[in-house]
Write a structure and sequence with these properties.
The protein is of the alpha/beta class and 441 residues long. The protein contains twelve helices and 19 strands. The chain has two domains: 287 residues, Adenylosuccinate Synthetase, subunit A, domain 3 (Adenylosuccinate Synthetase, Chain A, domain 3), CATH 3.90.170; 96 residues, Adenylosuccinate Synthetase, subunit A, domain 2. It comes from Methanimicrococcus hacksteinii.
Length: 441
C-alpha cells in the first residue's frame, strides 16, 4: 500500500499530527519535497515536538525517510536529530534514512534568499531559508548533494567551480561577497557529512522493495496545495511541487503504485506570507481563529492570516491531488462561534463562479459568496464518536462531503494525538442533516 498525504490549502493544516496518527498503520513514512521552511507540530502525551525535515512518523517508532526531492539543511537537520535523541527518541540507521541525491541548502543560498527578499518591492513572504536558490541550483545542475559531503576532494572541487558565480550574484543584489564561505564553514559541513553518512540510502530502491514485500508506505508533503510552484498562487508559492503527484517524482515511485491520497483541510483556512486569501478575516472572528487555533508558524513564529473555509479552493485541491478521502482538522476551533460561514462561490467582475480562476491576479479580485450555518457551544475535545458531535458540526461536515464528493475519514478535535474521530465513510447519514436541501451554506 502506498498512501500520499498532502495539505489541501496553503499549508499548516495539521499534517504532522495526522501523519503521526496514521503512521501506526504503516511501516515507512517518507518526505518527498520541500526543505526546513516547513514545520510539523506534533503533541504526544502533552509533550510538543516541532519537526522541520524529519517525517513525524519517527515519533511513532516507524522508519522515516527523506527523499531525493527534498532540499536538505544539514545544520538544522543535525539540531533536529540531537533534539529527538535528547528526548529519548531512537534515531538509528535502522529507522532513519536520507537519499544520497538530496540537494544541500548551502549558506550562500540562505544569504541570497535574505538579500533577494529585502530587495523585492512586491515581497513573497519567504522564510529566508534558501529554498528557492537550492532548487534553482538543482535545475541549473549546480547543486551540492548529500553524497558530495562524503567525498572531501569532490566537495572542494565543486565549491571552487561554484563560489565565483555566487559571489558575483550576491554582489549584484547588494550583499558583501567577501568571506562568503569561510574555510571553517566548509569544514563544519564535511564533519556533518561524516555524521550523516550512516543514514545515506537509495530511497526509491528501499520504498519499491518494501512495496513489493507487502509493506505499507506513507508519503508526506510539506506546505499545501496552493503553494505548489506550478498550480499554486504564483508568485506567492514555494519552490517545489506540493501536490500528490510530486510524491512519485520526489521519492522515485511509479504512479501505478499509489493506493490512496488523503487531503488535509482545516475547518477554516489560513495562510502565512503574502498572496490572495479571498475569505481573510480582519475582525473579531479572525482573531478568535488565530488565538484559539494557535495560528503561529512552526518555522517563522509569524501569525497566520485566517479566514472562513473556501469550498471553491477545496474543489480545485481535490482535482489537483485526486483525493480519495479528507481529514478535517481543527473543528474544535469553531466552538463558541454563533454562526459558521463558508465560501461557496465567488463573484468576479459581476459574475458568480463556483471554481477558482486560473490566474492569481483574478483570484485576488474575487469576492467570496458565503453560505452560513449555525454554530455550537459544546467543547469537542473529549468526543471520539462521530454521532456525539453537535448536530450543527455534523451538518457542516456532511455539507463538505456532499458538495466535494469526497468522504471525510478523520476529524481532529484538539492538538493531542488521541483527539481524533475516525469516521466510517459508509456510516448511516442523519436524515435531518441535509444542509443542501435546507439551503444552509
Amino acid at each position: 500500500m502506498f498512501t500520499i498525504i498532502t495539505g489541501a490549502q496553503f499549508g499548516d493544516e495539521g499534517k504532522g499530527k495526522i501523519v503521526d496518527l496514521l503512521a501506526e498503520e504503516y511501516d515507512l513514512v517518507a518526505r518527498f519535497q520541500g526543505g526546513d521552511n516547513a514545520g510539523h507540530t506534533v503533541v504526544v502525551d502533552e509533550e510538543t515536538y516541532k519537526l522541520h525535515q524529519i517525517p513525524s512518523g519517527i515519533l511513532a517508532g516507524k522508519k522515516a525517510l527523506i527523499g531525493p526531492g527534498v532540499v536538505l539543511n544539514p545544520f538544522s537537520l543535525t539540531d533536529e536529530l540531537n533534539m529527538l535523541k535528547s528526548r529519548g527518541i531512537s534515531v538509528t540507521a535502522e529507522n532513519f534514512g536520507i537519499d544520497l541525491k538530496a540537494s544541500i541548502i548551502m549558506p550562500y543560498h540562505i544569504a541570497m534568499d535574505t538579500l533577494g527578499e529585502f530587495s523585492e518591492k512586491d515581497k513573497i513572504g519567504t522564510t529566508k531559508k534558501g529554498i528557492a536558490y537550492a532548487y534553482s541550483d538543482r535545475v541549473l545542475r549546480n547543486e551540492i548533494r548529500l553524497g558530495d559531503l562524503f567525498d572531501e576532494k569532490l566537495f572542494y572541487e565543486k565549491l571552487k567551480n561554484l563560489l565565483p558565480a555566487k559571489k558575483e550574484m550576491i554582489s549584484k543584489i547588494g550583499g558583501n561577497p567577501d568571506n562568503l564561505f569561510p574555510a571553517e564553514e566548509a569544514e563544519r559541513l564535511l564533519n556533518i557529512g561524516k555524521e550523516l553518512q550512516e543514514y545515506a540510502v537509495d530511497v526509491s530502491y528501499e520504498i519499491n522493495n518494501s512495496l513489493r514485500a507487502g509493506r505499507k508506505v506513507l508519503a508526506e508533503g510539506a506546505q499545501g496545495t496552493f503553494l505548489d510552484v506550478v498550480h499554486g498562487t504564483q508568485k506567492y508559492v514555494t519552490s517545489s511541487s506540493t501536490i500528490a503527484g510530486s510524491a512519485c517524482v520526489g521519492l522515485g515511485v511509479g504512479p501505478s503504485q499509489v493506493t490512496k491520497t488523503i487531503g488535509l483541510v482545516k475547518a477554516y483556512i489560513t495562510r502565512v506570507g503574502n498572496g490572495p486569501l479571498p475569505t481573510e478575516l480582519n475582525d473579531e472572528v479572525g482573531r478568535h481563529l488565530a488565538e484559539v487555533g494557535r495560528e503561529y508558524g512552526t518555522t517563522t513564529g509569524r501569525q497566520r492570516r485566517c479566514g472562513w473555509l473556501d469550498i471553491p479552493l477545496l474543489k480545485k485541491a481535490i482535482n489537483l491531488n485526486g483525493y480519495t478521502e479528507l481529514a478535517l482538522t481543527k473543528l474544535d476551533v469553531l466552538t463558541g462561534l454563533e454562526t459558521i460561514h463558508m465560501c461557496v462561490a465567488y463573484e468576479l467582475d459581476g459574475e458568480r463562479i463556483d471554481y477558482p480562476p486560473t490566474l492569481t491576479e483574478d483570484l485576488e479580485r474575487c469576492v467570496p459568496i458565503y453560505g452560513e450555518g449555525h454554530g455550537w457551544e459544546e467543547p469537542l475535545g473529549d468526543i471520539r464518536n462521530y454521532y456525539d458531535l453537535p448536530y450543527n458540526a455534523r451538518e457542516l461536515i456532511e455539507y463538505v462531503e456532499k458538495i466535494c464528493r469526497v468522504p471525510v475519514s478523520y476529524i481532529s478535535v484538539g492538538p493531542e494525538r488521541n483527539q481524533i474521530i475516525k469516521v466510517d465513510a459508509n456510516r448511516p447519514k442523519d436524515p435531518r442533516c441535509n444542509p443542501i436541501n435546507r439551503q444552509l451554506f
